[in-house]
Give the backbone structure.
Amino acid sequence: MTLNYTATCLFGLEGLLGEEIEALGYKRIENIDGRITFEGDEYAAARCSINLRYAERLYLHIGAFNALTFTELFDGTKALPWEEFIGKDDEFPVTGHAIKSKLFSVPDCQRIIKKAVSVRLGEKYNIERLPETGKKYRIEFFIFKDKANLMIDLSGVPLHKRGYRPERVEAPIRETLAAAMVKLARPRENVLLWDPFCGSGTIAIEAAMMMKNIAPGLKRTFAAEEYPIFPADSWTLAREEAEAAINHDTQFEAYATDINDECVRIATESAVRAGVGDMISIFKMDALDIDTLGKRGTIVTNPPYGERLLTVEEAESLYRAMGEAFARLERWQIYVITQSEVFPKLYGRRADKIRKLYNGMIPCYYYQFFKNGEKK
């Protein structure tokens, strides 16, 4: 059985997400900002839920149609085969977004879609009032440029929540973004990866999980595990496949350091929960005291932002100090994400590459210094 799925991601990660969807053997249908629609069989829900490292949510894509009026939205929704997925007793709340469309009122769109699905299911099951006491199927709509896409959420808890980080430090970086930062930094077994502002350890943990090939969703559950449309054995098979793919022989090494004792404690416990405690050295250290220790290395880090953890003036002073301290790292490559648009000027070096990424809805700049050499 061929089904359509939609995976969403943070803006800027569409390329990475698309590559891993194709690596799992599925065909992309449509790419737009923050989401990719693709074809897969009934086993794809489990395999993608467990293995997608850069996705925020996975949806079953039910249908799409143009909707310039509420009548078109109602009729288009009612025409879709909801009874193939939602039982007569099941609950189906509706949430969503409308962007650059004539239908811009989200509450009104929710109401119209809810009514259309209710009418369709009522007619199919010959019930006047649906009880909605059974399984929960969250219907998600996305109306973009007057085209409505209707989906059913398969994730439940967002996919970036891997389960290894129950405690968080202030201003944490999202796991999916940390994984993308690591991927773009090209981690290698013979090169130390060091995050000197580790916070809860997310960057180093995601790097170690990637190099050990631990599927990000291996230790958690998903809403779709309750849905009868997907074979019961698909989840067992996907987890067995992911377990078998783990690389237990990797020699990859990471350091995660922070000046805060609580951060060191949280990062240490999170690394153990993630199954990579033996791959990461986590200890207290001032980032400005960093040294090569005679190793080849790469810095991948998310230093404190102004406004959230420091004042803007304090953050800018830190960036200047980072430039002086990191100059000691000889030929190490440096990757820094920050909200600051003037970071290279403060740091004292021109970035070799700048990539705009988002931490949730916060726009950031990923500054990449391939040659840690001459100042500009």
The two ends are 58 Å apart (CA to CA). The mean pLDDT is 95.
